[in-house]
Write a structure and sequence with these properties.
Helix content: 25-40%
Strand order of the largest sheet: 6-9-7-8
Radius of gyration: 18 Å
Distance between the termini: 35 Å
Largest sheet: 4 strands, mixed
Oligomer: single chain
Order of helices and strands: EEEEEHHHEHEHEHEH
Number of helices: 7
Structural class: alpha+beta
Strand content: 15-25%
Shape: elongated
Length: about 210
């Protein structure tokens, strides 16, 4: 059983965080590799060759790894992180989430707008509910997270808008599928860096809020 009380899948891959020493599912960690020039490279897609180093997707953890020279210690070689390392990782994760939502939209697996999202919720089509971090809390509270679905508020309205070709979007949703699973993974990591809660599953709003 995980620290959060969730029963872990036996096949769920785990890695040890270089800073905390804790072993946890890969979904909550970010992989890094050492480039040929000695620079530390975030492997957000987990496809780069070489020995990987894993860190919890948490801003203080990544900052500490860079400041304390932990990459060099683990690699047993000189390793340097670029200036503004954690900010670069955050920006990269945000781009990945936006691109994934855009792919889902093009395949008909994502919608935007209060009424369309509400319609999907009423028809039990929502696997992921995304709402802009800078949107009205009162407006966002009128929608709910279905049981077994995931809620994320890690993107701004302009970032969500990019995924749908609009200036801004407050409410969006993804249906079940591989792209939704990838959004859950990367949005969860982005939440860690932006200091926001990744899950609002199973919580229904009061009747007067709906």
């Amino acid at each position: 059983m995980s620290r959060g009380g969730r029963i872990k899948d036996r096949d769920e891959a785990e890695r040890r965080c270089l800073v905390t020493g804790e072993v946890q599912p890969k979904a909550g960690l970010i992989r890094f590799v050492l480039g040929p020039d000695g620079m530390v490279v975030p492997d957000l897609a987990e496809k780069l060759p070489g020995r990987g180093f894993w860190l919890a997707s948490d801003r203080p953890v990544i900052d500490r790894a860079s400041a304390k020279g932990l990459f060099s210690r683990a690699a047993k070689a000189q390793a340097r992180a670029p200036e503004g390392f954690t900010d670069l990782i955050e920006a990269g994760l945000a781009r990945r989430v936006v691109d994934l939502i855009s792919l889902a939209r093009k395949s008909g697996a994502a919608v935007a707008g209060f009424e369309k999202v509400k319609d999907w919720l009423g028809r039990d089509r929502v696997k992921v509910l995304l709402q802009a971090s800078d949107g009205s809390e009162r407006g966002k509270g009128k929608l709910w997270t279905p049981e077994g679905a995931r809620w994320f508020g890690c993107l701004t309205a302009s970032e969500l808008g990019l995924a749908f070709g609009r200036d801004h979007v407050i409410h969006s949703a993804l249906s079940q599928g591989g792209l939704a699973d990838k959004v859950i993974r990367d949005a969860g990591r982005l939440n860690g860096l932006r200091g926001q809660s990744a899950i609002r599953a199973g919580k229904e709003q009061d009747a007067d809020e709906r």
